[in-house]
Amino acid sequence: MFRKLHSNRDPRDTLFRELKKEFSVYFGKAESGITASLRRYPKQAYGAMVVLMLVSLVLSFTIFRHREPAVSVTPAITSVQPGKPTEMLSPVSSGFGQILRTTFTLRQTLELKQQIDTLLTKRSLTAADSTRLATALDRLQHLQQSITIKP
Asked: Could you give the CA distance from residue 101 to residue 93 in angstroms, rounded to a whole number?
């Protein structure tokens, strides 16, 4: 039931090697076809690249341009509190706010876990230690619920 399984596979056979072995024919044909067409029509390929860059330039300054006024991106840390919505901030600021909230929650979680670990390594707990342990576990559970509830 608990026998060790031995594999006789070659250690040089990896996923990348197998994929390369399987699809190298198709990639080789595509590479040779593209190379042949670029050698046959170099001016047209260069012209197509220049046209595509110009189209990209025009599109980036016309259609894809954001017309919203620039909003300062430096949110105050005190205004971003865990659990409070940030409707007043721009999408970038709310993203930073979410990152700050997550960092704050992670830092608190790590501190609570360290505190719990130090309390659990003690040989015997006093009444104050038991209260501190119960409070830390409750706070850790609350943080876990606040993380899992968010979409």
From this structure: 12
Domain boundary among 26, 43, 65: 65
Q: What pTM was estimated for this model as a whole?
A: 0.37
Three-class DSSP category at 63: coil
In the chain, the number of structural domains is: 2
- pLDDT (tens digit per residue) in 45-89: 999 999 999 999 999 988 887 766 555 444 444 444 555 554 555
The answer to whether position 92 is within a domain reads yes
The first and second tokens of residue 6, run together, are 């031995």
- Measured in whole angstroms, how far is the alpha carbon of residue 45 from the centre of its chain? 37
Based on the fold, state whether residues 87 and 116 are members of the same structural domain: yes
Inside any domain, residue 3: no
Q: Give me the domain span that covers residue 31.
A: 13-65
Q: Give the torsion sign (CA, 15, 21, 22, 24).
A: positive
DSSP state of 8: -
Amino acid, res. 36 = A
Contact predicate 114/104, CB 8 Å = no
